[in-house]
Amino acid sequence: MEKTTLIFLIIALALLDHVSTDAPAEEKTTTTTAPITTTTEITTTTYNPAYACENKPGSPVDCEANKAKCTLEQWKRVMTEFCPKTCGLCAPSGCLDKTDCSGMQALCRDFEWVQFMRDQCPATCGFCGGAGGGGSGGAGCTDVSSSCARNARFCNDPRFSDFLGKNCARTCNRCGGSGGGGGTGPGGGGGGTSCVDSSNKCVTWGFNGFCSNTFYDEAYKRRMCARTCSLC
Asked: Which residue ranges does the record assign to the ShKT domain (predicted)?
């Protein structure tokens, strides 16, 4: 009996060992990490015509240092003239350079080039219409040239009539089309036939300050533009 029981226990232990050996292996858990995708946002700069010009070359105003004045009404006219790019006060429409004018600012006040620069580089040279300022006159009645105030004394000079009518309508009160013309013509009473301009550009030069520019001596002014500079 005891022998039978012992045999039974041995068989039972053998069966248990077989069961534990054949037990399924533990499953391994695999973790998959998704790749990290980095998205780079590309920022594009939209062309803004309000900044599509340059500050006036040789400006007496430090534009960056006075940027806070851009929004002050009492400073708007000054900042528009000298610091349009800094303030975003460039002419809103139509007044853009027709060619690449970078590095050509020195020609803006050159008497030989001023007409070309006014046509090709108005934004760079500050020849845009500007932002008005008080006074009467229609919306289109503005000064095209930036030197109108300095040359206002020529407004009633018949030699400059056509030029000023187109470029300084506001300063010379030529708005509205009535044009004031009480002049008696360019001759006048008798300065002699020798009182003439030798260059057909003297009217433009005189308007832009040639006659009062100390860089040129009087002999040169008389030889080139005696009539325009009143040196007869």
From this structure: 53-90, 95-128, 141-175
